[in-house]
Amino acid sequence: MAEEFKACLISLGYDVENDKQGDAEFSRIMGIVDPNNSGAVTFQAFIDFMSRETTDTDTADQVIASFRILAGDKAFITADELRRELPPDQAEYCIARMAPYSGPDAPPEALDYMSFSTALYGESDL
């Protein structure tokens, strides 16, 4: 779980590469999101961390960019892709809250990660 979380942080622009400085930063972050040292990061801990750590206006854009990578550069993502790429609790959280994607190129099971990402960092009940 920690390695997947590290990959996610790297995709969001955090400097947690495998060197002394990166390891120290990753340890700091893990202390926040996994205070019991269980080796797992819950999706709620991730959301809380991102809410505290990011105050710039690019946050939703950064999350959209991360989802775009997971979706293979498509404007939508499927539940199967989310389940393959994210830990189960994160995938199910996203699937339950993402609206259907209604673009012309979308299969019936397509989900709208862009509106989800925008709502996640806006005024929303997600």
State the gist of this model.
Pfam families: EFhand_Ca_insen. This protein is mainly alpha-helical and 126 residues long.
The total strand number stands at 2
User: What's the rounded overall pLDDT mean?
Assistant: 83
* Largest sheet properties: 2 strands, antiparallel
Overall geometry = elongated
Order of helices and strands: HHHHEHHEH
Give the number of helices: 7
State which percent range the strand residues make up. Answer: under 5%
Rg, Å, rounded: 15 Å
Protein name: EF-hand domain-containing protein
Organism: Knipowitschia caucasica
Keywords: Actin-binding, Repeat
Pfam family, one: EFhand_Ca_insen
Structural summary, described in words:
- With 126 residues, the protein is mainly alpha-helical.
- It is 57% helix and 3% strand.
- It is built from seven helices and two strands, in the order ααααβααβα.
- The chain has helices at residues 2-11, 20-33, 43-53, 59-70, 79-85, 88-97, 113-120; strands spanning 77-78, 110-111.
- Helix 4 packs antiparallel against helix 7 and helix 5 packs antiparallel against helix 6 (88-97).
- The radius of gyration is 15 Å and the shape is elongated.
- This is EF-hand domain-containing protein.
- It comes from Knipowitschia caucasica (Caucasian dwarf goby).
- GO terms for molecular function: actin binding; calcium ion binding.
- Keywords: Actin-binding, Repeat.
